[in-house]
Amino acid sequence: MSYIVATFYKFIFFSEYAEKKSSLFKYCQDHSIKGTILLSQEGINGTIAGTSENVHKIVDYLKKDVRFIDLEVKYSMSSYLPFKRIKVRLKREIVTLGISEIYPEQQVGTYVDPEEWNNILENEEIPVIDTRNIYEIAIGTFKGAINPQTHFFREFPSYIKNNLNPEKHKKVAMFCTGGIRCEKASSYLLKKGFKEVFHLKGGILNYLKNISESQSLWEGECFVFDERVAVKHKLEKGNYKMCTGCGYPIADAYSLSNYSTKSISCPHCSFNLSTKEIL
């Protein structure tokens, strides 16, 4: 049996977000949906999985609210349910930057369609920043992209402060998994005085879905926050597993048999990372 994985988000002023938690949770439970949905005053962010029929019922349910009628949803397939349960959580931010007064629903950078993204990557005058975290970048990124060496998205403002100058860097581009981090990051850069900020529309997932491997400038696989661990072109399941000790993505080809304790399951465990810390 195949399942649908749906990823979606939208920045919008959502004052009564807490009131929606119980009804949304129950509707997902009633339709055997698994995954995580975050609700915040700044909007919604979720990845869910289930049968095609039930996932589309959830999307239709969300779109009954006129504020989410244009909710963009990215779909991919999985041969198994990549989540164990459904979680609907209330958060301060739907993606944590830790900077107040950033309003992506009011101002974001310029969207670049996947078909035009290679032109950005090949323009030597535009620094292209991977806004994801170090463990995500480790298994794949775009050719020539800058790795800011961040462990958490909230470290991104410090990277910008120490490495980019709006007077010097007239154009800046960025990308992330599905687009949500870039919307917030581009809004932040515009507020800091950067004039032209570009970001990949729909993120890496949209690029891998729409750009053929022969034309692609993507190298490696794309980390995803579910039990598939990573996906490849056409959003097919990748070749990584998740270390049970530290949560780090490990290539299938790597054997964990030499590591026997719960606290040391792979080489990355020596850095004392926990699943809670990196997710």
Order of helices and strands: EHEEHEEEHEHEHEHEHEEEEEH
- Radius of gyration, rounded? 19 Å
Number of helices: 8
Helix content: 25-40%
Strand coverage percent: 15-25%
Low-confidence stretches: 273-279
* Total number of strands: 15
Biggest sheet record: 5 strands, mixed
Structural class: alpha/beta
Shape: globular
Domain Rhodanese: 122-216
Protein name: tRNA uridine(34) hydroxylase
EC number: 1.14.-.-
Function: Catalyzes oxygen-dependent 5-hydroxyuridine (ho5U) modification at position 34 in tRNAs.
Describe this protein's structure:
The protein has helices at 17-30, 52-63, 114-121, 134-137, 156-163, 180-191, 203-210, 275-278, and strands spanning 3-11, 34-40, 43-50, 73-78, 86-90, 110-112, 128-130, 140-142, 171-175, 196-200, 218-220, 222-223, 230-231, 240-242, 249-251. With 279 residues, the chain is α/β, with parallel strands linked by helices. Strands 4-1-3-2-5 form a five-stranded mixed β-sheet, covered by helices on one side. A hairpin with a 6-residue loop joins strand 14 and strand 15. The radius of gyration is 19 Å and the shape is globular. The two termini are 28 Å apart.
